[in-house]
Write a structure and sequence with these properties.
The protein has 420 residues and is mainly alpha-helical. It has a single domain, classed as MFS general substrate transporter like domains (Growth Hormone, Chain: A, Up-down Bundle), CATH 1.20.1250.20. It contains 16 helices and no strands. 55% of the residues are buried.
């Protein structure tokens, strides 16, 4: 499923899997100085876990604080959501430049630059004095973060053993779900005691440490560089119906989930629930369903096929949205878990399919997927505010259902999936 030229040699940590003694008849012996392919994959997996955790914690941490920030800055729900949308928009606009930069210097080197800049901004941005400055700072954060998810899947397909790419891709997406959960969950109780600015700054220090670990764990050297002109690759990808459908699926599904997470706190902190922000943040533990779903995505694809899993992902999101319309907190929680699981299963499958299908210009293809994914997050996360203002939670639910049904249509198109 995930094809890589077996004849390519990658200079990763200057390593080879095994070496032979002088006589060919003797058993291969693992080099004491050079890591095996399994060790290399474990190190790569750990690096991508750091990338997923740090990127998504930093990007979505303000989501759990939108009600507090909106009250403190005297802005509406839709305006407060710009702190999330600005970061995802900056990321969406930066992934193609990061991909082009990585073609020149190599994926690991580009990711190191992105991690270093993002780590510094994580500590500095929370102290910007005005709401407008915060929105601008969040946009710049997104630009820096664009070099991590934009290149993670590409590096994975270029470096990892082909048979393990599906599992490692699911593991990376699981890390993104844990990062999104941790960012939201950790800052809220700290903000209740110290305020939202110190809470975001403390989180930023922890994420800067994760970025430093990522820099150490990434493969040494420049890695593989592309010899295909970027503009030519982009044109080819934008004419590929299968890739365009996958881009659309990612944008629609993540847009629906971000709308849910942006405005659910406004619902639960108002009548008839009147839940405290810390209690609302605990409801976000439903995000763990995304972790489990993304880890299971590769296994499901191997048994059910891409199309079936994508259809299931869309169905889970739609069903969860309908459940959330009920007034019961238990059903709202179950609905939230279904929405989250659906998004991360769909994202893991769609992003992995993009990397596998684009055998040339893979960095540009995965960058285009990330442009679509985060543009959808930014756009529909903000549109959810309009839906909330006009119809409260029912308006948000209708928006999510429409987005999910559109994704389902793209998932069942014949050219969305590779031939059996």
């Amino acid at each position: 499923m995930y094809w890589i030229h077996r004849s390519c040699r990658f200079n990763v940590d200057d390593m080879s899997a095994t070496h032979f003694t002088e006589k060919d008849t003797r058993e291969p012996v693992a080099s004491p100085d050079l890591p095996t392919e399994a060790n290399r994959d474990r190190r790569l997996s750990a690096a991508l876990w750091c990338a997923g955790l740090a990127t998504f914690a930093l990007m979505y941490a303000p989501q759990g604080l939108l009600t507090q920030i909106g009250h403190d800055a005297a802005v509406s729900a839709a305006q407060a959501s710009l702190l999330v949308s600005a970061a995802t928009l900056g990321l969406a606009l930066s992934v193609l430049p990061w991909a082009r930069f990585s073609d020149r210097v190599g994926r690991p080197t580009a990711m190191r630059y992105a991690a270093a800049i993002a780590g510094l901004l994580a500590v500095a941005v929370p102290w910007l004095p005005t709401f407008e400055a915060l929105v601008a700072g969040r946009f710049v954060q997104g630009v820096a973060l664009g070099g991590l998810p934009a290149l993670a899947m590409t590096l994975l397909h270029e470096v990892a053993v082909p048979a393990r790419t599906a599992v490692l891709a699911g593991s990376y997406v699981a890390a993104t779900s844990l990062g999104g959960l941790g960012g939201r969950l950790l800052v809220v109780p700290v903000a209740d005691h110290l305020g939202w600015r110190p809470a975001l700054a403390i989180l930023g220090v922890g994420l800067a440490i994760l970025m430093a670990v990522l820099i150490v764990l990434l493969p040494a050297g420049q890695g593989q560089r592309s010899t295909v002109p970027s503009s030519g690759s982009l044109a080819v990808h934008l004419r590929d119906v299968r890739l365009l459908a996958l881009f659309g699926i990612g944008a629609l599904l993540v847009g629906g989930m971000v709308a849910v997470f942006n405005y659910l706190p406004f619902r639960l902190e108002a009548a008839p629930y009147h839940l405290a922000p810390t209690v609302v943040s605990l409801i976000l533990l439903a995000y763990l369903a995304g972790t489990a779903g993304s880890r299971a995505a590769g296994w499901l694809v191997g048994r059910l096929g891409h199309r079936t899993v994508l259809v299931l992902a869309c169905t889970f999101m739609a069903g969860g949205t309908v459940l959330s319309l009920d007034g019961s907190l238990i059903l709202i929680l179950l609905g939230l878990a279904a929405v989250t699981a659906g998004l991360f299963v769909g994202h893991a499958v769609a992003s992995g399919m993009v990397g596998a299908h684009a055998t040339t210009g893979r960095a540009q293809a995965t960058a285009l997927y990330n442009v679509s994914y985060y543009a959808g997050s930014s756009l529909f996360g903000w549109v959810g505010g309009i839906a909330w203002a006009s119809g409260h939670w029912a308006g948000v639910a209708v928006l999510v259902l429409v987005l999910t049904m559109l994704a389902l249509v793209l998932a069942v198109l014949p050219k969305t999936n590779p031939p059996r």
